[in-house]
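So, does this match?
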Amino acid sequence: MSPSPHLMWVNSKPTTVNNEQFVQWYTQEHIPDIIENGVAIKAILYRETFDFPGSSREHHERSWLSMDQKTKNSCPYLVVYQTKFPEALKTPEFLKLRRTSDIMPVKEILDSGEFDGRYYNLIQDYDPDNIGDGTYTINLGVSLILSTLCSSTEVHCYSRS
């Protein structure tokens, strides 16, 4: 099976809620809603580990203690969505998603954090030995980048069967 023709890549950080609430919202409400409503076929949530060369201990400690939540440079969460839509956020499926949360103490979900999203179109699916499973393989390039940068990253994975 071929991988999805499009990816949606979203970096984010909480601004008005704590990290625990933010991850709980992503894993228990938002990502399941995205999958169940057909906006995406699969979603993978990562959290930055700060264990790459050049990352200072101070940066690592400040980020995990949530002291940098209001800084512009720290977006420790990454969600990669496989989707069949070139602009998933403009689809009727996305527009049907709920805008409130049972977990978040804010009225509007988007008021809980900063979100930086991007779309990517598939250029090549190179798997000459047919090793990868298209249902679970995001994209060779993205997977290599993430495995290089985030060798011990915490990962949550969701997919539509």
